[in-house]
Each structure stands twice: as C-alpha cells, then as structure tokens.
Amino acid sequence: NAGVTQTPKFRILKIGQSMTLQCTQDMNHNYMYWYRQDPGMGLKLIYYSVGAGITDKGEVPNGYNVSRSTTEDFPLRLELAAPSQTSVYFCASSYGTERRGNTFGSGTRLTVV
Amino acid sequence: DAKTTQPTSMDCAEGRAANLPCNHSTISGNEYVYWYRQIHSQGPQYIIHGLKNNETNEMASLIITEDRKSSTLILPHATLRDTAVYYCIVRVQGNAGNMLTFGGGTRLMVKP
Question: Which residues of A touch B42 (CB under 8 A)?
C-alpha cells in the first residue's frame, strides 16, 4: 500500500491563479480530509468527506472547493489564490469506525506570491 | 470537542522514558484521547488512542487518569528520531469519523 499520496509536493502560485491539489489513497478508507498548517501552528480542517459524493466544510473552508467522485480521490481546488493561502496542505484518510486513527500524506507546500 | 492543554516544550535524554502530559478537564464520557506526532516537515503520524483504559502498542503507552481529566503519553526509550511535536486531541467518534482538531502540541527534543 502506498497510503495517502499527495501531489505536487511544492508549488508557487501567483495571486489570482487557480490550482488543484491532488490526493489519493489506496487503503479503501471511506473518510478523507484536507488540513492546512501555517508556520508554527497546528493543523486546521478545511473540508472533509465521509464517502464518495459527500463532502462538508471544516473550520476554514473559504477560498477552497472539494469533490469526491471516487473513494480513492479527494482533490482540493484553490480558486483565485491569495497570499493568505500560503501554507502546507495535508490530506488524510481513515476508516469510519474506531481503528488506527488518520493516515496523513506527506503534504503540499504552497506559496502564493 | 473538549480542549486540551499541553506544555509547549519538553526535553528528554536519549534512552530515557519521555512522559508527555495532557490536560483535558472538560472531556465528555464518549470522547476518546488521541495522540499524534509530527516530525519536522512531515505529515502527522498516529501514535495511540484510548477511551478510559490504559493502552499500549509498539510505539507508546497511554495512561489515562481514572477521572479522565488528564493523560500521559509514554515513550519508553526515547531516541533522537522521536524528536517531534506531539499533539493530544480529544474527539468523539461520530458521523464525521476521525475529524481532528489540532492545537499547539508539545515540542519534544530528545538529546544525546
């Protein structure tokens, strides 16, 4: 199992540009999450999904969109990038029931200039 | 979800036990205690979780007080590779699965 795979690892965007952060998992987890982590801070939940076709907002959803067309994939879309979106983005997945917690990807470091 | 309080930083000598405390005095009866860690520039890594009984796995032990208002994560023989930020999180297992709220965590420095 590859676990949770995120691409790209690094990206620099100009203000106003758009991009999609990719996330895929091969563990057949039904729950998937997107977090962001600003320098020196803890993680904040952006969006989550409890299954294909179902998504919901987390703590900081503004400026982002998600979709979940398959169990494996949970892309995060940034529209009209702003400097405030400079952060490290982590995707995670888990089973719905209590097992071994969330499995996280290695992150995407995004800089908006 | 209940809030947690952790020391900002701790040091530990290599080979010794690292005991990381966490206060969660407002924890509800159905909230679990989770521990994660984050090594520099990597994604968080799940360590252990528990409800009210003490738990042990290959990575660590979790001791939860009888009143469940605090807990301690124990790394029995800390190595340099255990240097990381450790997060204590309390969470209800509900429809949103393992949705986690991360605070500031404890920065553990393991020294030779």
Answer: 106-107
Q: Which residue has the tokens 């803890």?
A: A42
User: How far apart (Å, rounded) are the C-alpha atoms in residues B41 and A76?
Assistant: 20
Spans in chain B with pLDDT lower than 70: 1-2, 93-99
> Which residues in B have their CB inside 8 Å of a CB on A?
32, 34, 36, 41-46, 49, 87, 93, 95-105
Distance (Å) from the alpha carbon of A111 to chain B's nearest alpha carbon: 15
> Which residue in chain B has the smallest CA separation from A90?
B43
pLDDT digits (tens, 9 = 90+) for A24-59: 999 999 999 999 999 888 888 899 998 999 999 988
Closest by Cβ to A104, choosing from B32, B44, B103: B44
User: What are B23's two structure tokens?
Assistant: 């206060």
CA distance B61 to B64: 10
Sign of CA dihedral B88, B90, B94, B96: negative
β-pair type (A76-78, A19-25): antiparallel
